[in-house]
Specification:
123 residues; alpha+beta; 4-stranded antiparallel sheet; 1 helix; 4 strands; 44% helix
């Protein structure tokens, strides 16, 4: 009776298949994580753009040109992503305005951030 040490071809093939499945699963998970981090970063940037414009537009609303609704639009490109900004101003009551800012961009789908703020006119 011979005592041979080592692995059979079947055992080696099974180990290769298990390793391939594990590496494929890891690669898919990493790809998903990269996409999620990228999406999260663009969302943070979109929110920062919206906050910046709502502050700017709030200053405009403190001394509005008319007593009726008006709007302003802008675009901003950050890291090759185009952010489209819409600002709407409407009377909200006595000497106050509702300022709404909507920021939209396309990166892994279309995304939108909307902020609102009530501003009192300067007299």
């Amino acid at each position: 009776m011979r005592n041979e040490n080592g692995f059979t071809l079947v055992e080696v093939l099974i180990a290769i298949v298990i390793l391939a499945i594990g590496l494929t699963t890891w690669a898919v998970t990493q790809s998903s994580n990269v996409e999620s981090r990228s999406r999260s970063g663009k969302l943070s940037t979109g929110l920062e753009v919206a906050q910046s414009y709502i502050e700017e537009y709030a200053e405009v609303a403190r001394t509005p040109p008319t007593n009726s609704t008006f709007s302003r639009n802008a675009t901003e490109t950050i890291n090759t992503i185009l952010y489209t900004v819409e600002g709407d101003f409407s009377p909200s009551g006595l000497e106050s305005w509702l300022v709404e800012v909507t920021v939209e961009w396309t990166h892994y789908g279309t995304h939108t951030v909307q902020l609102e703020r009530v501003v009192v006119e300067d007299n």
